[in-house]
Structure formats: structure tokens, C-alpha cells
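Morning!

As promised:
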Amino acid sequence: MDNVAAAPLLPEVREAMLPYLGQIFGNPQSLHNWGDGAREALEGAREQVAALIGGASEEIVFTSSGTEANNMAVKGIARARSEKGKHIIVSAIEHFSVFNSARTMQREGFEISLAPVDSTGTVIPAELLKLVRPDTVLISVMHASGEVGTIQPLAEIAAGLPKDGPVLHTDAVASAGNIPVDVKKLGVQALSMAGNQFNGPRGSAALWIKRGVRILPLLDGGIQEGGRRPGTEDVPAIAGLGKAAEIAKRDLEVRMERLSGLRDMLIEGVLGEVEHSVLTGHPVNRLPGYASFCLRFIEGEAILMLLNSHGIAAASGSACTSRALKASHVLLAMGINHELAQGSVLFTLGPNNDAEDVKYVLENLPKVVDRLRQMSPLYSKYLKEQKG
Amino acid sequence: MPVYSEKVMQHFMNPHNVGEIEDADGVGEIGNPVCGDMMTFYIKVKDNRIEDVKYKTFGCGAAIAVSSMVSDLVKGKTLEEALTVTPSMVAKELEGLPKNKLHCSNLGAQALHKAIKNYAIKNKIDIPGLTDKEEPEEDEHACET
């Protein structure tokens, strides 16, 4: 139940990739027959990806990861527009690939403002719009959080922006392929997405950039992707991304309904079965497969290790779980204190999960929590205070 | 490759000596929830020996395994012997800890030392290796707020 970290490749997607790992090995830039097949795959995938998000195929740039797409959007757009101004706004809960790209731009002389979120992890449009200045050239707000699943009011933000003002980019890596994403309805000018978040291959991702929006490439090189992303194309990965996009579009409603049902069963179960548990993120506006919690008095890594011993995979935003030993900036930005953030646990459901899995978690999680609380000094303090 | 050694996993899955001692002779608490880990050690002392040791730990797998190992290392030892337990000794007994988890081994040793100090102060005694020792630095545990 850790599909956000790694989701299984759909068999149909693997099938779609295989020819390009075998016989059709050509370079899409070649003018001979061997190049034709590869070119066909590339352009076919471009149309499939564009169709998923309601964009035009020539507005799609393939990249190697969501991280690269976000880097390219933030740095490439800011640099291309630096003569218009040097102010960028990002939300307080962005992925590190947006956050750290903004930080890089700060070193290049840009000013960065952070748009706050409320306790549900939702960017407050009015607060964000207050930060907009005449020299704001770029705003980056994720479409949905990969940590708490909250879906952001992008259309509302877009509607409040001045005409011909800042470019609005969204990191839709967690949402694209999982909920309806339509660049026109969202009102954005750039959007990042990644195949591995909807059962496509890793190493396959894309940046959609609205026609007319200027962007500088991160890499210097040849003419691939219109010169915006040079480097020989990873045709098998791109073919897989295209297929995954096609399937995601086709099955979106069914998948959403199924995963939302399982998610709600898990959320209700955990909140009901585990004392002192809170749901993190928005109660309603959340991604279908995302059930995220903070469990008081205990720590996330220990929870994950015990769950793992029961054969359950989950994730956590606790300080101890992170290599850097820092609590998730997303949870902290939502006003969750360090102690509670330590008890973060995130279940992300995917195509291989069913109601039996959810039941199994609901049987075992309370045991795991109880065991850790029995050895927690915070819990015994709490119990003594209750008595006293 | 697993993150933790087999020894760490054994202690994490079946930690020894978990609990509290109601009428403890010494109590040592270290860390705080903001930093991520918190340990409370309880000792019962008889004839200068740690007759019983228990602890409660809020923290990650390493923190729990460290607490368990420290309790094993000092149970039945004299106070002087217990004071010679160092973080590196704990880490070594656990067959190593990941680099970013080494601070957990500091916490275990520090919490125990604090419990012994608490006992010494309460009983107004001087234990070689305690008073002449600098208070362990807590800031080794990188805690950013």
C-alpha cells in the first residue's frame, strides 16, 4: 500500500513497451526506416499524453522524471521571463523538485514567496493572490499533494491572476492519471506529470507548456523535443507513458470509484479503530488512493517496520524516516506539530489492492500501534495525566 | 539490502526490559519529541549494582533497539561498569547502525548516564567516572526546529 513510492507496471503498458526494447530500436531522429517506427511511437505517445490532460500534442515535452519536469518548469520559465521580473511564488507544500528549484533561482537573484496552506493542506487562494506583484513572473502550486492527497483550488487561483501576469505552473505528478486533469479547466500554463504515478514506467514523464509560453532548456544539446529537451529519446519509456496515459483516461472513472471506496473504508476504519489518530489532508478533496494519518505518541519509522513485518508496505513523513531526519515540511506547513508529525503514516492504494487488503491493515495496524504505545514514554505520561 | 543489521531487527522486534519501575532509584530522561526521539531509563540499584533496568522509548527502530541493547549491557553491572558503556560500544554490539541513526546510540547511553546521575544525586554519593565526567553533549543529536 505504498503505490506513491512504486506502483506496478500494468501488463498492457509492458506489452506496449516491449517492441521498442527489441526489434524497433531505431532513433526517432533517423530518416531511414528504422527511425520511422520509433518516431511513430514517440508521436503516438505525445498524442496520448496530450489527450489525458486536454492539451495539444505539440505542447508536450518528454522528460526523464517528474523531478526533471518540475526543474525545467521552474528554472526554465523563470529564466526565460527574468527581464519581466524576478519574483516567484510557490506554495509551502511543494515537492522538493519545485522547492529546491525555486531556491536555485533565489541564488540567481530571484525573490521567492511562500504561499501558506490551511490545516487541510489547501493553499488559500486569497492569501496567495495577495503575494502577487507586478514583477511576479512565475507561480507554482501543485495540483495534489503526494503526501496528504489534498487537491488544490487551482482554477480559483488562476481566475484571480491578472491577465498577461505570472505564468501558473502546476506539479500534477500525483494527480495526472488519477483524477481528471484538464489544463484549460485548471487555467494553468505549464503542468508536470509522471508515468510512474499511474502505473506507467519509471523514467517516463512530461512537461506540458502552453503554446506561446517561453521556456529555456535545462540542457544544451540537439534538436530533440524541439530543442527544449535535447538528448536521444527514451522510446520504450515514452511508449509506456503513452499507453499508461491512454489506459488512465479510459479507466479513470472506474478506477477513481474503486480506489475512493477502498480509501474511505481505510480512513473510517483507522479513525474508528485507532485511538488518538487524526486524518491528515482534506477530508473530501483528496486523491482517490490516499489515506494519510498521524498517530499520536509513536513514531512513523517504527510503525512502518512493524507493518512490514506483517507484510504491509506504507510510507511516513516522520523525521526519523527521512534521511535528513527532518519532519515533513508538508505536515509542518499544515500546522501539525513536530511530535504529532512523528506519527505520520501514509497508505497509497493502487490496482493490486482490494478490500481484503484494507481489512488486513485494519486488523493489524491497531496491534502495531498498541505495541509501540506500550513502550512510549509519551503515552504513559499521557495516561498518568488522564488519571491525575 | 536491509537498512538495519539482523541484531538491530532482533532487538526491535523483541525489545528486552521494556517498561517502567515504579519505585526506581534513578530515572533519566533524554531527547524530546520535537527532535524525534525520547527515552526514559529507570534503574533499581542494590549494593552498587544495577539490579534492574527498564525503559520507555518514543522513536524509530534504531532508538528502540538501542534502548534494548543498553538495558542488556548494564543489567547486573556495577554503576562504575555501567558508566563505561559508550555509544560506540552500543552501536558495535548492534552490529552497526546506519550513519544517520548513530545519534540514537548517543541517546541510549546518555539516558542511562542520566539515570545513574539521578541516583547519585539522590543518595549524595560520588561515583568515579560520573562527577569528573562532562555532561554529554545533547546537541550531537541534530535537532532542527
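The two ends of chain B are 32 Å apart (CA to CA).

Hope this helps with the figure draft.
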